[in-house]
Amino acid sequence: MSEIAVTEEATDDFMDHRELLFSLVYNMLGSVADTDDVLQETWLSWTARARRSPLDTITNRRAYLVRIAVNHALQRRATINRRRETYVGPWLPEPLLGPADDPVDPALRAESVSLAMLVVLESLSPLERAVFVLNEVFGYAHTEIADIIERTPAAVRQLAHRARAHVHARRPLYEAHPRVRREATERFVRAAIGGDIASLMEILAPDVTVWTDSGGNRKPAGLRPVHGRDKAVRLINSFAGRRRPQDLDLRFRRVNGDDAAVLFEGDAPYAVMVMDLTPEGDQVSGVYIVTNPEKLTHVHKDEEEDR
Q1: Beta strands in 190-248 (DSSP E)
Q2: Pairing, β 258-265 against β 97-98
């Protein structure tokens, strides 16, 4: 078989699994740009392997590709961590958008991981996060993960236990019904944009936390997360007050699998707002606002997404 034919066969295999690889790596990194880079590195490694030896000798090509992608993603974490050291203000994952009427974002078809969960995963070590994503999100067994990250099954079980305990301590097991989440999201956004302080005080939980990720590119933005209802209302009111409601076009879209709000200024994305609810589903316990233009390059006003 010619080298061109080998490369084409390897590329076809890669494209057959690209959706899975994208979801897996994105959940490990929280960045679309870094995920795309890792997938490019994965393709290069895969095609190089195909040129060295026939692909027919690989009994499970999906597992082989996953192993390549996960290890490239683990290497990429070092680069991301260095960038984070000089990042201005709170860092939030890059929002991954889907159409409002699509119950499952194609790029996250395997499993959707909420933006709030991705924030929690940021506090894990790279290996703990990889094990958690592979095991809890994609259902890989500990023995399979051991082969992927080149650790013993006992080490993987220990990593999984630590990661699971940490995540469950910070994230409630209960998830609000999608209809309840949509209604709460709409109530919050309309109150925030309209400057309705009384409604904001009613819908925000007393211990609410607000993250505003501008990367230092837009104001106002807190240099750290804001805790407590009174401070949250002041920050949200300051954020909303910089634009008149008529200047912003509000669209409700699905962000990382959850209903969320996207604000546009003309055709340009201005902010993505994601709400996390209390276990009862009647109040907002967390608000994640991404305004950093570098993290909104994949956000488009029309509902036709490339991913």
Answers
A1: 204-213, 226-227
A2: unpaired
Find where tokens 């991981």 sit.
113
Residue entry with tokens 């159409």: 99
User: What are the structure tokens assigned to 102, written together?
Assistant: 């699509």
Residue type, 299: V
Which residues are within 8 A (CB) of 219 and not within 5 positions of it... i.e. 6 or more apart? Answer: 242
C-alpha dihedral over 81, 84, 85, 89, to 10 degrees?
Answer: -160
Q: What is the mean pLDDT of each run of 10 residues along the chain (307 residues)?
A: 84 95 96 96 95 88 96 95 88 84 46 85 96 95 97 97 93 71 87 89 94 78 85 84 68 89 90 88 90 91 53
Strands (E), the chain: 97-98, 204-213, 226-227, 249-255, 258-265, 268-277, 284-290
Distances from the Cα of 28 to the Cαs of 2, 46, 165, 261, in angstroms?
A: 36, 20, 18, 24
User: Rounded to whole angstroms, what are the CA distances from 231 to 63, 90, 134, 197?
Assistant: 48, 16, 38, 12
The position carrying tokens 């007393």 is 206
Query: What is the predicted pLDDT for the residue at 204?
Result: 96
**Distance between CA atoms of 265 and 246, rounded to whole angstroms?**
10
Structure token pair of residue 54? 């026939």
What does pTM read for this prediction?
A: 0.88
- In sequence order, the 6+-apart residues with CB closer than 8 A to the CB of 171 are 116, 117, 120
Give the per-residue pLDDT at 193.
Answer: 83
